């Protein structure tokens, strides 16, 4: 198991019930994720970490509402409610998540002009988070993704993992999705087609 890592995506208060961008059942995955950590030699957490007024917030675009889309320099961007603002309680990890096992926390989305779904790249698909280099230097080749949300940050991370040469799996029992206009089925299909092991 030395070459295998559990990548826990964005299990933060704002993505759980009562949060600014709550995913249905988001808190239900905390206990299963904690239990899974015992099966992995390596655990990495990601944390959405936006400055106030981030460009992905609908409130930053006049006349736009959450879940509208705009065209950014890097392509189409879904607009979100203000969420996971740096230093707020909403940006904190769910209080029941066992963070003591994490050997690395990747914070993403902190650049004001670009959003970041993937654990590997910002949404321009060029600006790296540093996770690829970290995993390679540690000799980790097999990744299992859990957390929030299946059809956005999990899917983008798993697809990028495969593109970066890692073996990737997603444990759907320990994930929850947003499902905007069928996005959940679409992204699960894309992951399967790319060779992600969907369990």
Could you explain how this protein is built, in words?
- This protein has helices spanning 30-37, 131-137, 150-163, 183-194; strands at 4-9, 42-48, 69-72, 75-78, 104-108, 142-148, 167-176, 197-198.
- The protein is α/β, with parallel strands linked by helices.
- Strands 5-2-1-6-7-8 form a six-stranded parallel β-sheet. Strands 3-4 form a two-stranded antiparallel ribbon.
- Helix 3 (150-163) packs parallel to helix 4.
- The chain is globular.
What labels describe this entry?
199 residues; alpha/beta; six-stranded parallel sheet; two-stranded antiparallel sheet; 8 strands; globular
Map the helices and strands.
Blueprint: E1 4-9, H1 30-37, E2 42-48, E3 69-72, E4 75-78, E5 104-108, H2 131-137, E6 142-148, H3 150-163, E7 167-176, H4 183-194, E8 197-198
Parallel strand pairs: 1-2, 1-6, 2-5, 6-7, 7-8
Antiparallel strand pairs: 3-4
**In one word, what is the shape?**
globular
Quantity of strands, as a count? 8
SSE string, helix = H, strand = E?
A: EHEEEEHEHEHE
Structural class: alpha/beta
Strand fraction: 15-25%
Q: Which strand order spans the largest sheet, edge to edge or round the barrel?
A: 5-2-1-6-7-8
Oligomer: single chain
* Global mean pLDDT: 97
- Evaluate the radius of gyration: 16 Å
Helix percentage range: 10-25%
Sheet with the most strands, sense and barrel status: 6 strands, parallel
- Which segments are poorly predicted (pLDDT under 50) over 5 or more consecutive residues? none
Number of helices: 4
What is the terminal-to-terminal distance? 18 Å
